[in-house]
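Why this split exists: single-chain examples teach little about how molecules sit against one another. For that reason, every record in the complexes split bundles all components of an assembly together and asks for one structure covering all of them. Below is a record exactly as it appears in the raw files.
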Amino acid sequence: DAGITQSPRHKVTETGTPVTLRCHQTENHRYMYWYRQDPGHGLRLIHYSYGVKDTDKGEVSDGYSVSRSKTEDFLLTLESATSSQTSVYFCAIRSGHEYQETQYFGPGTRLLVL
Amino acid sequence: AQKITQTQPGMFVQEKEAVTLDCTYDTSDPSYGLFWYKQPSSGEMIFLIYQGSYDQQNATEGRYSLNFQKARKSANLVISASQLGDSAMYFCAMREGSNQAGTALIFGKGTTLSVSS
């Protein structure tokens, strides 16, 4: 357990509404990531952060924005949700040192866009 | 081209038997890391094992070992003495570049493992 929580854990929303997912970590990790998981695609990177206010895009970033104003929180926002954004969203942190590296995942958020 | 390929959509094994889950990868970067994760039906992603590209020995973690064949670009997961609780989806993933760069992971599409008694 790397002290990662995600909220909400489940959400149903309507097309066109804004949605914000929160990832919170308690161990002061520098790197944080948002992935989405869809059937047949494995996990794909949406955005990541390498420090407070430092973020960058991933493979499937269109329609998403992120913010990191504190080390412990990494927010993912869907500005105007679409049905194609129905997915399971995972937050992850990087932990480790020079010879051993791990990415730990939060419990996930199931988002349904109607 | 896919960076991570898992060719077995489903695998079936009996309790106490060993099973190998295949993973091949594609990168031209000399520095990379390979990971395996387990996702049970409850949905969480559980880290199992890590292998760095410069590691001389195959990684092991309890009943899990990673059969790393660098020249063949394969990183198969071996689970010894399967248990019913091993039934899950298994994902292979790769990080390209130095592990100091914090690069995100690239995932394969997963293999479903079913263990029967």
